[in-house]
Design a protein that fits this description.
Length: 159
């Protein structure tokens, strides 16, 4: 990960196509709300399905708490739609098959040359795309639990 992407820094305002093919900016999707942003390895990975299933189950709490969720993967639009639909997710999934984030953030995962994914990361972002917390999910246990996200969001909103 680029050394400037850390707590207190601003996350880049990427613009990518969503699951419907419409280009969306992260700032537009976030609005004036906290945002949980997950950079995913892609729909091929069972670890991603397991992790995101927990977010799907907790999504009603995120909605009533005015907290947005966005997932970005290197999947193409068809794969992105299938991934989102298979989870039953209701939030935007963005597609980055050109691997813009992977290169820009220096998060290429070298252990899987077949899929050429990003190293998964989860960010808790304050309004204005300011980084509050970063989780490196290369190892499954490095990903945040819903309870950890709840505590992060509670701390963020206390500020």
């Amino acid at each position: 990960m680029r050394p400037d992407i850390r707590a207190g820094a601003n996350f880049p305002d990427y613009e990518l196509p969503d699951h419907e093919g419409s280009f969306r900016r992260l700032s537009e999707l976030q609005g004036s709300n906290p945002l949980v942003l997950h950079l995913s390895r892609g729909g091929f990975d069972p670890k991603e399905h397991r992790f995101l299933r927990h977010l799907v189950d907790a999504y009603p709490d995120f909605r009533v708490a005015y907290t947005r969720i966005v997932v970005i993967s290197t999947d193409n639009q068809l794969e992105t739609n299938e991934f989102r639909d298979s989870l039953g997710a209701e939030w935007p999934f963005l597609s980055d098959p050109e691997r813009t984030l992977q290169r820009d953030l220096d998060i290429k995962e070298y252990t899987d040359p077949v899929h050429d994914p990003m190293i998964p990361h989860t960010f808790v972002l304050e309004p204005g795309l300011q980084v509050f917390k970063v989780y490196n999910g290369y190892w499954y246990w490095g990903r945040p639990s819903v309870d950890e996200l709840r505590l992060d969001l509670r701390s963020l909103l206390r500020k």
